[in-house]
Write a structure and sequence with these properties.
Helix content is about 0%, strand content about 55%. By secondary structure, it is mainly beta. The chain starts with 17 loop residues before the first strand and ends with a strand. The relative contact order is 0.12.
C-alpha cells in the first residue's frame, strides 16, 4: 500500500496493489512494476513462459476499472540476505528451468470477485490485462505456460462452503476457454506442469473419490493426468497413507513432487518421484518439517525442529540439489525462515529462493547450484 522498490500506490484510491520485480544475478533490483486498478488487487500466482513473457494472475474488485500502471523504475536498495551455509563450493550446473511457486493457502477477501491475468515483458513493460468474472468466489493457485497461452489452475468455493478445483485455458490474445472442474467439494489443486505429450499433470489434495478412485486416508495427495482439451481425467495416483492427511504442493517434469504428510503422531515433509505408471521410484521423508517444494533437480524443505538427516535446526530452510535417486548432493541453509514463497532454478543463474523470515521480512536468496 505504500512506496515499494521505487513504485508508489496507484491512483487516488489505490488500496492494495500487486507488483512484479526483477533482480540481477548480484541481487540488484533491475525494475519494479506495480499493476492493478484504483481499487484493491491481490496477486495469487506468477509464471514465466519460454518466450520470457511474465504472467501474473490475481483478484480484483472490478473488471471494468482500467489498469493503472507505474512505469518500471530501478532501485539499487535491497535488504540484506541472511548468509547461506553450503556443504561445499559447487559450480553452476544446467537444470530443467521449472518454475515452482509454494502454495500456502491463506484466506482471501471474498469481495474480490474478478480473476485478472496480466502480461508483462522481461523489461518490466505491461503488455495487456485480461479479466473474467466469477460465479462463485475463487482464485488461481498456479499458472502453467503452454504453446499458445497458459492454463490457469485454481480453487472455487462451492455454495455449501466446500472447495473444488478448476482448470481454464487463456490464449495470449486474452480468450478464456471453458472452465473444467475437479471434485465436488473436497479437492484442491496447487500446481502442475505441461507434459511433452500435451497432457497436464496436476497435483494437490482430495478427500473425495475422483475418476472412480476412492479415498485411502483422511485426505490423499493426488496426481492427476488431465486432457487440456476437455478436462477429462486420464489417470489418478493417490497417496496410500491410511489415516494420514497428505498434500502435494509442487510438481516437476520428471514426475518429482513435493508436499507434506501428517498423522496423529508424526508430521513430515515428503519429496517423491513417480514412474509413468504411478509407482514410487524413491521417496525422502523428513520429520518435523512443515513444508516442501521442488523442481526437477532441487528441493526446499522448511523445518520446525532439528533434523539430523538435513543437518538443520528449527526454522532452517534447507535447499539442496538431488541426484537420480533423490539423495542430496549440494545444499545450503537459510536460517530463521517461516515460509517458502517460491523456488526457481535456471541455467547460468543457479537457484533462487524467496522466503518469509520469522521477523516478517521477505528474503530473496541465490544459491550457486
Amino acid at each position: 500500500m505504500g512506496n515499494f522498490l521505487g513504485t508508489t500506490p496507484l491512483g487516488p484510491l489505490g488500496g492494495l496493489d500487486s507488483w512484479v520485480s526483477a533482480f540481477d544475478s548480484s541481487g540488484g533490483n533491475v525494475w519494479s512494476l506495480r499493476i492493478g486498478t484504483s481499487e484493491d488487487d491481490v496477486a495469487t500466482a506468477i509464471a514465466v513462459d519460454v518466450k520470457e513473457l511474465i504472467w501474473v494472475a490475481g483478484l480484483a474488485q472490478s473488471a471494468e476499472d482500467p489498469t493503472a500502471v507505474i512505469p518500471p523504475q530501478s532501485s539499487s536498495s535491497m535488504g540484506e540476505v541472511q548468509p547461506i551455509q553450503t556443504s561445499q563450493t559447487p559450480t553452476v550446473q544446467t537444470l530443467n528451468p521449472d518454475t515452482v511457486t509454494a502454495q500456502t493457502v491463506k484466506p482471501i477477501r471474498k469481495d474480490l470477485k474478478v480473476v485478472t491475468v496480466t502480461q508483462v515483458d522481461k523489461s518490466g513493460v505491461l503488455i495487456n490485462r485480461f479479466a473474467t468474472k466469477l460465479n462463485n468466489f475463487g482464485y488461481v493457485t498456479s499458472i502453467i505456460p503452454g504453446g499458445m497461452g497458459v492454463f490457469l489452475i485454481g480453487i472455487e468455493i462451492t455454495k455449501s462452503g466446500g472447495e473444488r478445483s478448476f482448470m481454464q485455458s487463456l490464449t495470449i490474445s486474452g480468450e478464456f476457454g471453458t472452465k473444467y472442474y475437479f471434485g465436488k467439494s473436497a479437492t484442491t489443486l496447487s500446481s502442475g506442469i505441461l507434459n511433452k505429450d500435451k497432457t497436464l499433470t496436476l497435483v494437490g489434495q482430495s478427500s473425495e473419490a475422483l475418476a472412480k478412485k476412492s479415498v485411502v486416508g483422511k485426505t490423499d495427495g493426488i496426481i492427476l493426468t488431465v486432457s487440456p482439451t476437455d478436462g477429462k481425467i486420464l489417470k489418478v495416483v493417490r497417496s496410500n497413507g491410511v489415516g494420514a492427511t497428505r498434500s502435494w504442493k509442487s510438481a516437476a517434469g520428471n514426475l518429482t513432487v513435493g508436499g507434506t504428510s501428517a498423522t496423529k503422531n508424526l508430521n513430515e515433509a515428503v519429496i517423491s518421484q513417480f514412474s509413468s505408471t504411478g509407482s514410487v521410484l524413491w521417496s525422502k521423508r523428513y520429520s518435523g518439517a512443515s513444508s516442501a517444494i521442488n523442481n526437477s533437480a532441487v528441493a526446499a524443505v522448511l523445518t520446525t525442529q532439528s533434523n539430523t538427516l538435513l543437518k538443520s535446526k528449527a526454522g532452517d530452510l534447507v535447499v539442496y540439489q538431488f541426484d537420480k535417486k533423490g539423495d542430496p548432493t549440494l545444499g545450503g541453509r537459510i536460517p530463521l525462515s517461516a515460509e517458502i514463497v517460491g523456488l526457481r532454478s535456471q541455467s547460468g543463474l543457479g537457484t533462487c529462493v524467496a522466503t518469509r523470515a520469522m521477523d516478517g521480512t521477505f528474503v530473496l536468496a541465490q544459491l550457486p547450484f
